[in-house]
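Tokens for Lipopolysaccharide assembly protein. Go.
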Amino acid sequence: MILKTNKFEVGFYLRKSFTLLIFTFITCFFTSSCKIYSFTGTTLSSELKTITIQNFVMNTAGGPANLTLTFTEKLKEYYQRNTSLKLKPNDADLLLEGSVTGYELTPVSATSSDKAALNRLTIRVEVRFVNSKDEDQSFEKEFSFYQDFPQEQTLAQVEGSLVPKIIDQIVLNIFNDTAAQW
């Protein structure tokens, strides 16, 4: 019995095989690159097992009384949720410490009557990051973020909703610079 095939079937199987070969090549290339990649977005080396996150301190006037505590806890929570690192009180592979250095309210976007149409709340955090396995990764850097709100509202009215948004963004930026290195 002779098996008959037409050109269409042969071409189809060749294209399918070629596509599979390209996909395999690309997958191998990306999984064997220099950095460790995980689907959570981290590029942490597999030899890093622990992290110490010291309580951040307040080095500025203003802000909620629990700002540094809230910030520290959100930072710890984010690392625990998005990495396999274990929190350790001291002598860890990674260290994060720092202080809140700015809590500022400034007018932005002036109107024709020289009044601010918007006010801006900015929070600044100075961070010291130490990677004991790779000192080239260590740094000291300031992170900041802001949220604008209408002039008709007072800081007391919006502080409860703006501060968590600002903290979340600063935590994300710190994580990206320390664990994801985008």
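The domain at 50-180 is CATH 3.30.160.150 (Double Stranded RNA Binding Domain).
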